[in-house]
């Protein structure tokens, strides 16, 4: 039997959950109780979130950490440590204030337009000093088209004297550029410089080394590693600028934007361009003709490689040399991952030193059922575009896990945070499946907090013992561990690869490069799985920690991954190095599909289908059925998820690798259902309710002989009479009965009668068994259900379908059902984050049906 299937069936799965555990510095005595709550939830690791702590790396911090590590060691739990006192990572616990020479530098420009001819004209230059240094002055003739300039700089640097530039202006209109290396233009003035190793080492010396000094004997044992949270360049506007498109859209080519700078940048650019780069710097903001794209690309190539080498790789190498690992994520939102400002310029390079890839899903970035709609969220700008969040975000993390030389297939996501108390277990389960089926397999649930009610980014699991959802959350954590264990091993089977759009966006004019999300959506809705590959897989020889692509028998091979084709999003022009690499791929026999600006999904899919058989084919139109496939030797593991919140999936899928008759194991691990399934020539019947998911494993040995086939039920209306009682979240054992009894078709509307109620609703009834009935379906429920039949605990349901098999405990006469429904704390605690999503109705909404 497949080893990992055997592990899951016998309760031996590993841990894949490491929730944030916030430290405020004023709940020392409650730490053991809180860690026990984390342990009871099914999580066997935690990540200490230092941001709210009042004494990070001080005596109070070490006192708290002593207890945390001791309690975790006693329980066999792992501890990860968030690596700074402020968000985002890079503050170095305030140490930069004492080392001002290690602050970040920016490249800024000032310009003046002058009309010639004018003999011995004078312009004032800005005052300079240690924090504002003149790099050069260059004149460019204007073309008269917008703000474009003609190629060919006139160097005027040596004409600056005593604060004035004095020169004779030739005939025509000229723009005079003053270029400065400056401490201005940053949103993080007291942060380390991500482009300078000596500066980043200050973070290591202050945070990493101090933890090693205190807990050396625990490193590589209880202490698992460090977590960086959304480090970035942090550059911002430094002068008059054009329209600000928002924090997610700060990129090269924007007038007025300061740009991250290091003294190595001009030399790196000069090598790339084959010409002195400094006079060409104005192209970083304004159009200088044909050379503009190459200059901008050379700059972004330089700073993202410096970030990689100086920041993420230095931290990762330190961790590795000290027996621990390094994880975290940047801001990926709305394609910021390939830009400056709040992010780090290049998703893959920014995480190059990590031992897992990383992303986050917080702030309503993804809402179940909203994949076709730009929707409200608590992100910047208060809206989220599903074209990115639903189709690219998780695939970025999964792709790097597949092709990173030290990732070992591990992709991490910080998830659930800042959705508000309205986020119940149905939404959490949907999000967890969204990640699993896209290849993410390690999770940082956000968050456990020692303070209740903590207004800082709820929900907070457990809520100091008064969380009605905690029982369901704990079941979800155990489900996640089991599912991730099955889906973390083997080789991901992808039909295609998509070229990461960063290089095209850097090189092209604003808005002319097609984003990765365009082909991603076209493929994914047609059940064609893919990975996203950076150009470094094809062009980079500087030691990036991604596997380099080779072509074997027409297949693009990157490490263990195999792709039938590479899809290149449309771009007016690409860097010559990338064009040459793509041409070499073609010459080696690979299929490279170049998209055009007007390429439709039909065009792309038709071109693909003309050449290749799909790994998974779905009968009928089911765009919200999501699939993933891993292979290991002769074993094949599939996950199928119905992401629709309303429509069931009833179809047949064809699995390309399976031939003849095969038997496999189908697992609905959320509800502990394990059944045998059979295929003929790869055809598998699949029926999934909204929110439902299954994992199917085909092993060379086949399914165990004693496994039953999955039963099929029909629903008939249930006519029951319930007594109803409520218990508030403050005391969920103290029930107050509602007067009278209620037929199952007219149960009380708890939310209408008491909109501020949070807690549990208990429904009790007695009944005789109808002929042929073996189960019950509760219909719509808000939000978790726990059912007892004749005193037997039949478990918790955290999302649809709220169905139970009653066959083992039903009697012919006088059966008792007790159903406990738990809603969320959003009704009683009206936090601001919950305003961005609907609060489901509380209790059983039905219809209640018997299952025959």
Mean pLDDT figure: 97
- Give the overall silhouette: globular
Largest sheet: 7 strands, antiparallel
Uncertain segments of ≥5 residues (pLDDT<50)?
none
Number of extended strands: 45
Strand portion, in percent?
25-35%
N-to-C span: 33 Å
Structural class call reads alpha+beta
Radius of gyration: 29 Å
Total number of helices: 16
The helix fraction, in percent, is 10-25%
Description:
This protein is of the alpha+beta class and 852 residues long. Among the domains are: 94-192 and 231-355, no CATH class; 496-614, Rossmann fold (3-Layer(aba) Sandwich), CATH 3.40.50; 618-698, Golgi alpha-mannosidase II (Immunoglobulin-like); 715-851, Jelly Rolls (Sandwich). The protein has 16 helices and 45 strands. Strands 34, 35, 36, 37, 40, 41 and 43 form a 7-stranded antiparallel beta sheet that branches. Strands 4, 5, 6, 7, 8 and 10 form a 6-stranded antiparallel beta sheet that branches. It has a 6-stranded antiparallel beta sheet with strand order 17-26-27-32-29-30, with helices on one face. The two termini are 33 Å apart. The model has no long low-confidence stretch (mean pLDDT 97).
Q: Topology, pairings included?
A:
Layout: H1 3-9, E1 20-22, H2 31-40, E2 45-49, H3 59-75, E3 78-82, E4 105-124, E5 132-141, E6 154-155, E7 160-161, E8 164-182, H4 197-215, E9 223-229, E10 259-261, H5 265-273, H6 292-321, E11 325-329, H7 347-350, E12 357-361, E13 375-376, E14 383-384, H8 386-403, E15 411-415, H9 425-436, E16 442-445, H10 470-487, E17 491-492, E18 496-499, H11 502-507, H12 517-524, E19 530-533, H13 536-539, E20 549-552, E21 555-558, E22 561-563, E23 565-568, H14 576-587, E24 591-594, H15 601-611, E25 616-618, E26 625-632, E27 635-642, E28 649-655, E29 661-668, E30 673-680, E31 683-688, E32 693-698, E33 715-717, E34 721-728, E35 736-737, E36 742-743, H16 750-753, E37 759-767, E38 775-777, E39 780-782, E40 784-789, E41 792-797, E42 803-805, E43 815-822, E44 843-846, E45 849-851
Parallel strand pairs: 1-2, 2-3, 3-9, 9-11, 12-15, 15-16, 18-19, 18-23, 23-24
Antiparallel strand pairs: 4-8, 4-10, 5-6, 5-8, 7-8, 13-14, 17-26, 20-21, 21-22, 25-28, 26-27, 27-32, 28-31, 29-30, 29-32, 33-45, 34-35, 34-36, 34-37, 37-43, 38-42, 38-45, 39-44, 40-41, 40-43
